[in-house]
Amino acid sequence: MSPVTKKFLLLCVLAVLSVNNVLGKVHVKITNSLTNKLNLTIHCKSKDDDLGVHLLHPNESFSFQFKRKFFGGTLFYCSFQWNNELRWFDIYKQTRDVQGGDDFNWSIKESGPCVTIVYSTQPFCFPWNPKLLM
């Protein structure tokens, strides 16, 4: 393979990685936006990482960052507990979020999590994941 062909292929690979935001770190911020000044306990995990349990007072935030998996499949999920409610949500799902950029600002509300991303001024709100049956 000629040196020119190698350089061209390298540029193609870098362009693909750049378009899919694979090289940069993802930043996730989760804010307690519950009404009535309720505290929120969160516990976030991935297949490889347990980020621990965190107590968020009203309007407090918890942030973390990570690198996406090269071939996809990065998933972080969190449980959210307040009063007698226990909910969970996939806070970062690469197949859903890869086109959303690198910064995800989540507001946790009783009705579900809402995210604001760099490409939009309006938040996108999601329903909670289904409750698990014990």
TrEMBL record:
Keywords: Secreted, Self-incompatibility, Signal
A GO BP entry: rejection of self pollen
Signal peptide residue numbers: 1-24
Coiled coil: none
Family the UniProt entry places it in: Belongs to the plant self-incompatibility (S1) protein family.
Residue spans crossing the bilayer: none
Cell location: Secreted
A GO CC annotation given for this chain: extracellular region
Name by which UniProt lists this protein: S-protein homolog
